[in-house]
Write a structure and sequence with these properties.
single chain, alpha/beta, Copper Amine Oxidase, Chain A, domain 1, Aminopeptidase, six-stranded mixed beta sheet, 8 helices, 14 strands, 32% helix
């Protein structure tokens, strides 16, 4: 079984609407409706495809069969969701993608109520799916809205001896004018970590998105990871304009694609 939120993340969708009887998952090109009552059915872009199956509930959390992933994914439209991947060609390696915060730790929030933990998960899931398409082995630290200790996130990369650990976050500042992505590494970062940070920074800068460069900060997930590790702040939720962009599916995809391009260039 899998939570509805985790199902949405693994499909590259977001939970757009829900009540006690149904859930709507969407992106720029697709609408998936799951009826979560007894004998409920599911629809992809208006087409009925079958029964949702057994639904379990734990308070406000709904669990559905994980087999829905394979049933829904072939019917999703690619247009508008994932632009052509560049540069071309496969890559090799193992990357741990860490969606920052989660569960009881929401992270930053915008004035309009955009929560960092949700932005982080959506972008991280897109990165994971795009990397897999490039031939990279990927491990997510979380696929759903759950709290994970910082040390446990780093341990995932350490146990896998990952080629790169990438932690995804969104920033906040006292000034509403602060904007742009930032890439962080530990002060004692290895040459490979610095090379990965430069590669990702260059790829993100090519999108035309405002950037604040590469900075050093001893975040626990960075110093706790034994291999190369970077932390990316996607932008500022305290900036109303940037917060609105960070909540848009198309902009999340744009950032994810740039990060993937940078990772792939580093792995080569």
């Amino acid at each position: 079984m899998i939570t509805v939120e985790a199902l949405a993340a693994r499909l590259g969708l977001r939970v757009d609407e829900r009540d006690g009887e149904f859930v709507v998952l969407k992106d720029a090109s697709n609408t998936v409706i799951l009826f979560t009552h007894s004998q409920g059915r599911f629809f992809v872009n208006g087409k009925p495809l079958g029964s949702v199956g057994r639904v379990q509930r734990d308070g406000a959390t709904a669990y559905v069969p994980q087999t829905l992933l394979a049933q829904i994914r072939p019917h999703l439209r690619a247009g508008g969701q994932e632009p052509p991947v560049t540069p071309a060609g496969p890559a090799k390696g193992t990357v741990v993608v860490d969606a920052g915060h989660g569960g009881r730790d929401p992270g930053a929030s915008s004035a309009a109520g955009v929560r960092e933990k949700n932005v982080n998960l959506r972008v991280a899931a897109k990165i994971a799916r795009l990397l897999e398409k490039r031939g990279v082995a990927v491990k997510m630290t979380r696929w759903q809205d759950r709290y994970i200790e910082l040390e446990d996130r780093a341990d995932v990369a350490n146990q896998l001896k990952a080629d790169l650990f990438v932690s995804i976050h969104a920033d906040a500042a006292p000034s509403r004018d602060a904007e742009g992505f930032t890439i962080y590494l530990a002060r004692t970062a290895s040459p490979n970590t610095r090379r990965a940070a430069r590669s990702i920074n260059q790829a993100m800068a090519r999108t035309g998105t405002a950037g604040r460069g590469i900075r050093e900060q001893d975040y626990r997930v960075l110093v706790g990871t034994q291999g190369p590790a970077v932390l990316i702040e996607l932008g500022y939720l305290s900036n109303p304009r940037e917060a609105a962009r960070l909540n848009e599916d198309a902009y999340q995809t744009k950032l994810a694609q740039a990060i993937v391009n940078g990772i792939v260039s580093y792995l080569r």
